[in-house]
Specification:
The complex is a heterodimer of chains A (405) and B (165). Chain A is α+β, with helices and mostly antiparallel strands and 405 residues long. Chain A has 17 helices and nine strands. The chains are: A alpha+beta (405), B alpha/beta (165).
Chain lengths: 405, 165
């Protein structure tokens, strides 16, 4: 939109190709932009001619802050990037640092991580489904989704003491062992949850209003999905058969059995179908992880990197010294650089960590899936109706904390 | 999983298709290579960047047709100061490759890869915003995260973490 000041949100009338178009400002406080996304929509009647996203309202400079923290202190920062899937962010970061260190983690920690990571995916997809349906006008689904999400947040609170900003994963394992009774709780959840997924899809899949609002709306072609660097369910809804968990397995996913749902239509409904199928796959993976969960330590045997148990710290001289050193000076990481991509609920979440051999990372870069997926807003909205913008934004499932970092 | 020493010898790295492909078709473009922690990094001459990326993308032995990530590094105060980092991904070969270009600090610019991947546009704007590296040929190079009137580029190493400038 040449000649328009992005900071001037007043409607501007100008002539493009002989037509009268108007610039409409949407957001940043619009409830269906899922945060603080501002869209500048150039419209001709009710048809969108061009759309330009304006982001950065949630930019907090996390990448810069990380450079001033010890490696273990970065973990709480990663939760706050994508606040709907904190464990996935923790997971990507600790995997990257473990790769830099060449550190191996015990099997129990690995399975706990996988189990919670998939629960996080369910949690994130439930928020997506609830808010997406709410945007389109189906309020009931929102209430049902948040009923189950509440259960998952309770489980997070049981393991980590926090509902949302869990910071549960540690470099070399997880912070604490699972509490008593947790496995029964999660088994119970895993047993009834598939029925709940059926409940949601009963409300939506064959609902004529839902189908009317989502079928054939905001189409992304497969070629666009690749060119625009889309990933995750957004790309899989357009026929891109790619899932990092299956194709470049990390952190133990090679030992799980699951299918990767793919749809080819590329519209809002296809992305909805992919995510609904992913919910079922995720809960099956949670069940597999519970079944395979062995006994044993939850932290790697690396006293100079992993904090000692409280018991050891209070009784052993060496452990006390290590505790003191790790907390006050951190631990050094050999020089090098690592890119670790994981499949977050939104797509490829990549952590690029560069070490210069000191106790603080030289650079931590987050390749956030929402930032890349926002690229699709142009092809989804242009030449479509204004009313479908809300459906389009909901269908790529962006989190603005993840976009802006 | 003990750490293996990094391999930087081009002769030894010829077994990697990306290195072999570049050495065969445009040896002038490849400055150096490193294989460390199961990840391959190539340093490319800035003037050959687009051709090299195009070659890696289309050659049947490499097929790095996806750009997964684009970012930069600041090695202040050494020169050349900046490195722009491209993380390529091949769906076919299920493999990653990191391509880097070194650029100097006095007038940092590099060619835009938006002709190859349209989706790189916001990533380049982000690097421009936070590092002050210009991308030649970018269709709309403006700040993206910070306000338009912001002074300085926060991810540069000489930009303070706290306090007033």
């Amino acid at each position: 939109m040449p000649g328009i000041d992005p900071f001037n949100s007043a409607p501007v009338v100008e002539t493009v190709d002989g037509d009268q178009t108007m610039v409409l400002n949407m957001g940043p406080q619009h409830p269906s932009t899922h945060g603080v996304l501002r869209l500048l929509l150039e419209i001709d009647g009710e048809t969108i001619v061009r759309v330009r996203p304006d982001i950065g309202f949630l930019h907090t400079g996390i990448e810069k802050t990380c450079e001033a923290k010890f490696y273990q202190q970065v973990i709480p920062m990663t939760d706050r990037i994508d606040y709907l899937c904190p464990m996935t962010n923790n997971f990507a970061y600790v995997l990257a640092v473990e790769k830099l260190l060449g550190l191996e983690i015990p099997p129990r920690a690995m399975w706990i991580r996988l189990m919670l990571n998939e629960l996080t995916r369910i949690n994130s997809h439930l928020v997506w489904l609830g808010t997406h349906a709410l945007d389109i006008g189906a309020m009931t689904v929102f209430l049902y989704c948040f009923r189950e999400r509440e259960e998952i947040l309770k489980m997070f609170e049981m393991v980590a003491g926090q509902r949302m900003m869990t910071s549960y994963f540690r470099i070399g394992g997880v912070s604490m062992d699972l509490p008593l009774g947790f496995l029964d709780y999660i088994k119970n959840f895993a047993n009834y949850f598939p029925d709940r997924i059926t409940q949601y899809s009963d409300l939506l899949t064959n609902n004529p209003i839902w189908r009317g609002r989502t079928k054939g709306v905001a189409i992304i072609t497969k070629q666009d999905a690749v060119d625009l660097m889309l990933s995750g369910p957004t790309a899989r809804g357009s026929g891109v058969d790619w899932d990092l968990r299956r194709d470049m397995p990390y952190g133990g996913y090679e030992q799980l059995e699951f299918k990767v749902p793919v749809a080819t239509e590329g519209d809002v409904f296809a992305r909805y179908e992919v995510r609904m199928a992913e919910l079922r796959e995720s809960i099956s993976m949670v069940k597999q992880a519970i079944a395979k969960l062995p006994d044993g330590p939850i932290k790697a045997d690396a006293p100079k990197i992993v904090l000692p148990d409280r018991e050891k710290m209070k009784t052993q001289m060496e452990a006390l010294i290590h505790q003191f050193k790790i907390v006050t000076e951190g631990f050094t990481v050999p020089e090098g650089e690592v890119y670790q991509g994981v499949e977050s609920p939104r797509g490829e979440m990549g952590y690029y960590v560069v070490s210069d051999g000191t106790a603080k990372p030289y650079r931590v870069h987050m390749r956030s899936p929402s930032f890349a997926n926002l690229n699709a807003i142009g092809v989804m909205c242009e030449h479509n109706l204004l009313a479908d913008v809300v459906a389009a934004i909901g269908s790529i499932d962006i989190v603005l904390g993840d976009v802006d970092r | 999983m003990a750490l293996q020493p990094a391999v930087t010898d081009l002769e030894l790295l010829k077994v990697r298709p990306a290195v072999a492909c570049l050495l065969e078709s445009m040896p002038q473009a490849l400055q150096a290579a490193k294989f460390d922690r199961d990840e391959l990094t190539l340093w490319i001459e800035p003037i050959h960047l687009l051709d090299a990326l195009q070659l890696l993308r289309t050659s049947s032995s490499t097929t790095f047709d996806n750009l997964a990530d684009l970012t930069a590094l600041d090695w202040f105060p050494s020169e050349p100061r900046f490195e722009v980092v491209y993380s390529l991904l091949s769906y076919q070969r299920r493999e990653r490759l990191r391509v880097k270009v070194k650029i100097n600090g006095t007038d940092p610019y590099v060619e835009s890869v938006t002709p190859l991947w349209a989706g790189a546009s916001p990533f380049e704007r982000e690097v421009f915003d936070l590092f002050g590296i210009r991308f030649q040929g970018h269709p709309d190079l403006r700040r993206i995260l910070l306000p338009d009137d912001w002074e300085g580029h926060p991810l540069r190493k000489d930009y303070p973490v706290e306090g007033y400038r």
